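## Example pair
The file below holds two records. Each record gives the amino-acid sequence first, followed by its structure token line.
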Amino acid sequence: MAHHEHLLDALRKDPAHAHDLIHAAALNGEIAAQFLLGQMCCEGRGVARDAVEGLHWYRLAANSGLPAAMNMLGRCHELGAGTPCDFALAAVWYRKAALAGLDWGMYNLANLLATGRGLEPSRREAWAWYRKAAGLGHAKSMNLVGRYLEEGWEVEADALAAREWYRRSAEAGDFRGQASHAQILIGEGRIVEAAGWLRRAVLAGSPAFLAHVANDLAASAHAEIREIAQLARDRGAAVEARAGHEAA
């Protein structure tokens, strides 16, 4: 564990130099180093981006039993990173990670179940995994538990419980949870508080989220909320421009 922390510290300080240390440790069979090297290759940290190489190291670590690597191997198969997209194989690895107790594996497996990608759709099983991950403190799962409770999907509708899960998701840092919590606050007339949470959501949101939320906010009856719509548009444009620059 001490050596793993040393590698992490080196990665934070000087990714290029850390690559040599982590690569040597990975070749020596250190599972945590194999996982870190997979991340570095997939993200282009300290080394040229190479999803195929990243997949190789994730697979080694996953086959050695590291749940985080199982989850990321599933992610590569879901996104087609370093390998053709294969939702069924992604589900296999997500399930392994979930059964090993990893909250991200539970969440990702639930997403495939909820949408019927690679698996027969099962909103009931998805609910069970979202609920389990939320119980472990997974912020995105907390938001979805709130949604299930609000909508009455596979569970009796419970607006108060949904409200609590949205709040917990927001406080745990999920931008969708922050937007969900803000909508509850708007309904209660707590506009200033809602605007604060929406600004936090916009600063952390993905391009798809920002495009959607900008349209919703622009239609609000409250001027304080409408003002955030432009912030969402500006932020979305900046995120897309940065992504385009990194891909070039």
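Second record, same layout:
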Amino acid sequence: MFTGIITDVGEVRSVETRGELKRVRINCAYDVATIDMGASIACGGPCLTVVAKGFEDGANWFEVDAAAETLALTNVGRWAPGSRINLERSLRIGDELGGHIVTGHVDGMAEILDVRPFDGMARYEIRAPRAIARFIAQKGSVCLDGTSLTVNTVEDDVFSVLLIPHTLSVTTWGQCKVGDFLNIEIDLMARYAARLVEAKV
């Protein structure tokens, strides 16, 4: 379980194809001595399991395996050495819930249609996959590339979010551009509310 509050921006060091898996090594600022093998880390949104860790060339690193479903539903398959990734370690009991409840189970990819910078901020217009667009509501929460954000406007399958200067500086959002695809996870409460309504039909 996560909050969508980014705590580090990692950098992909290597990507190795192993059959239908991809083993990804990510440099990070986390003290790897505090990361347990098998721990969950949200990497650009998807919850991935730590399968190796270490320290090399002055950098801490951990490795994760991305399976076929993750590669099909997310942008993980597009990662290459040098890619910057939003990171968040799993929530601990007693931690501050500063964003919203995020599972790390990505629903698909959303496309950036427009970026409008102003006053150090930026407004992004994004198209959601048609199948999940109905779960996105104005003033509701959405998780994009692991970041908890508030939805500003919604029109059909297109919605907008506003990024403040702090978020732009401590996440990968400052490098996002038109045409990029973001990992999207819809709000957990919206998902269950819709399921309850469907069950009553």
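Notes on the second record: The chain has two domains: 8-89, 108-200. The longest helix spans residues 188-200.
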